[in-house]
Amino acid sequence: MDAKQTILLRTRIAFLGLFVFAVAVVAKLIHIQFVQGKKWTKLAQVATLEYRPIQPSRGNIYAQDGNLLATSLPFYKVAIDPCIADNELFESNIKLLSTLLAEFYQDKPAQAYYELLCEARRNRKRYLLLNNKQITHHDKRKMSEWPIFREGRFRGGVIFEKTEKRFKPFRELAARTLGFVNKNGNGVGLECSFDQILRGVEGGAVYQKLTGGSWKMIQSSNTKKPINGYDLITTLDINLQDVAHTSLLKVLQQSQANYGAVVVMEVATGEIKAMVNLGSVAPGQYQEIYNYAAGSQGTTEPGSIFKLVSMLALLEESNLELTDTVDTGEGKYKFHNLTMSDVKRGGHGIITVQEAFEQSSNIGIAKLIDNTFSEKPQKFIDYIRQLGLDKPLGIQLQGEGIPFIKHPKHRAWTKVTLPWMSMGYEVKLAPLQLLTVYNAIANQGKMLKPILVKEIRYANRTIETYTSTVLNKKICSDQTLKKLQTMLEGVVERGTAKKFKHGFYKIAGKSGTSNKIKNGKYSDATYASFVGYFPADKPRYSCIVVIDDPQGTEYHYGGQVAAPVVKEIANKLSAKDLVSAPYIRPIHSTEWHTPLPKFRVAYKDDWQVTIQTLGINFPSPLNSDEWLQVIQQEEETIWKPYSNFSTSQVPRVVGMPLRDALFLLESRGLQVTLQGYTDGYVKAQSLTPGTQVKPGQTITLELN
C-alpha cells in the first residue's frame, strides 16, 4: 500500500470515529432529556433551595404607665435589578426616577443616578444598591409610587431590603438604662440584661432562589414560625425621669462637671422611678454614655454620705445619746501620723453628737468611731457587712459595680484607716448601694433590693411578675433608727443642707463631698453628693444625686451642687402628685405673709385642698363652676366662674397654672408651644378663646 492510500485510510477512520462520537453525544442528550429528565430537574431545584432563618420581632419596653420606651421599627435600603423593566418602561421613566432619587437622597445630581442606572442595565447587572441610607416605612410607601418602582419587584425590579432598628420615642431619656444590643450580642442596660426574653425565638423556612437573586418562601413541613419577643414593663415614671434628667443636666452645664447621676426610688416598694446618667461628651454637652449610678465607673469613695453608716454602727454598738458631746477642737486633729481637718475654719469646738452629724464634722465623727472601735475594728466592718455593702446588690442590670470594703487583715489597712473610713474614704460604693441604705432608714429599717422591671408580658398576657426582695428585715434597732431619722432631718433643717430647706414639707438627707485621687494623690477635685428621702414624716421617695468633679467654688460641696437637684425633683413631685398633699405643713393665717396675686384662675377642687391644707380661711365656692377666677380685694376674696366654652372650642387659659392650661388644651387636641418660664402662669395665648378648634392646630402660650 502506497503512502497515498495509507493517508486516505487514516482519514476515513478519523471521520468514522468522529461520527460515532457525535452519535454517542446525541444519544446521551436524548437519554438525559427524556429518560433522566425528572431526576435532573429535581436536582436543579434542590440546588436553588436553602433553609433560611426568619427573625422574630423584638419585644417592647414600657414605662410603668404604658408609655413606650423602646420598640423596633422597620427600615429599608433601596436596591434595584435594572434589567427587569422592559425597554419602553425603562426608557420613558428613567430620567424622572433619577431626578426623584437625587431630590430624596441629596447626595448626587440626577444625571449621576441616570448614568449609574443605565450603565448597570448595559452591563446586565442584576443587583444595584442605590444608597446606603436606611429609609422609614413612610418613605418606602412614597417611593413605591415613583415611576418604575410602582411596577413592583417583578416588573419594575425595585428591591426594598427590610431591617429592624431599635427606636426610643423619648430619645435620650433613660437611654443608658434601656441600653442596646449589637449584632454580636453584646450590649448594656435592660436590652442586654433581658436579651433572651426580648429577642424571642428564631424561626425558619425553605426558600427558593429566583431569577435576579431574590428568594421566595416555600411552604413545607419544615417551616417554623418565629416566636416574637416578650415585652418588659418597667418601674420607670417617664414624667419623673424627664424632671430628673432636666434638673441634673442644668446643674452639670452650670458646674461643667465630668458626669452626674440621679436615682429616685419609691420607699415602700424599692421600685426605681427614675435613673439618669449623664456624662460629658463635649464642653457643655452631656449624654447617657455610662451607668454611673450602678456601674464600676461610678463606684468610688462616697465621702460624707457614708457617715450615716458610721453613725448606725456607733449607735448600735454604744449607749451614746445625740445630746452627748465631742470635742472637735479648732478644726484640726492628728490621728497617729496624719492630720484630719474640718471644713469650717477654726473648727466647731465642743458640739453634740447630733451637731457633729448635721454639720458633717469629720473630726467629730472620726473621733467617735475611733474611740469606740479602735480596739475592735472588725466589729465596725461587721456592721457594714450586715448592711450588705460588701457585695453587689444583684439588681436586674448587668455590669453592676463591685464594692470595696477594706478589712483589718487587708495588707493596706493602717492605723488611720478606721477614722478615714468613718467619713467615707478607703471604701468604694456605687450610688445605688448607698441609696438602698437610706431608703431602708425611710422604710422603718426594712432594706429592699431596687427593682427596675416588674412584669414580663406577651400581648395582654402576663408571663412573669417581679417584686422587690427584702434584703434585711431590720437593719438596726428602733432606737437607733429614730436617732438616725432625727439627724437626717436636722441636716436639712439646721446643717449643711439648710439652704435646701423647703417651706411646706420636710426633707431628710445628708450631703457629701470627697476629694478625688489624681495621679496617686488626693486632689482639689471633688465628688459631690446628696442622698435623702421625702416627705420626712411619711417618706414616699428616696433620692440620690452625685456630681463628679464640678468646677468653681460655688459648686464645690454636695450641699451646693447636688442638693438643689433633689429639691427641684421634690418640688415637681409635690406639684404633680396629689398624694403630696398630706405632707404639706399647715400654716396659720397669721404666719402667711405672702399675699395672693390679684388675679388667678384655678380648678375649684385644687384650690379648696390648698387653702384647707395651708389653714387659710377663705370663702368656699361650693356652688361655682369647676374653673374659677380668684380676685382678692382689700378685705375679701371674690370667686367668679371662669367660662371655658365647649370641648370643640379654644378655651380661655390666661391666668392658669401651666399644668391646668396644658390639660385643657391638649384634651381638645391642640398642640402647645411655650414661651417664658415654664413654672409660671399663662400671661397670653395666641388663639382667641371661643373659636373652633382645628385638628392639629398649634397654640402658643406666653408665661410669666
TrEMBL record:
Cellular-component GO terms for this entry: plasma membrane
Main subcellular location of this protein, as a coarse class: membrane
Compartments it resides in: Membrane
Single GO MF annotation: penicillin binding
GO biological process, one term: cell wall organization
Alphabetical list of Pfam families matching this protein: PASTA (PF03793), PBP_dimer (PF03717), Transpeptidase (PF00905)
Record-annotated membrane-spanning stretches: 12-30
Assigned keywords, A-Z: Carboxypeptidase, Hydrolase, Membrane, Protease, Transmembrane, Transmembrane helix
Gene3D superfamilies the record matches: 3.30.10.20, 3.30.450.330, DD-peptidase/beta-lactamase superfamily, Penicillin-binding protein 2a (Domain 2)
PROSITE patterns noted in UniProt: PASTA
SMART domains: PASTA (SM00740)
InterPro entries, sorted: Beta-lactam/transpept (IPR050515), Beta-lactam/transpept-like (IPR012338), PASTA_dom (IPR005543), PBP_dimer (IPR005311), PBP_dimer_sf (IPR036138), PCN-bd_Tpept (IPR001460)
UniProt domain PASTA: residue ranges: 644-704
Name the record gives this protein: PASTA domain-containing protein
Organism of derivation: Amoebophilus asiaticus (strain 5a2)
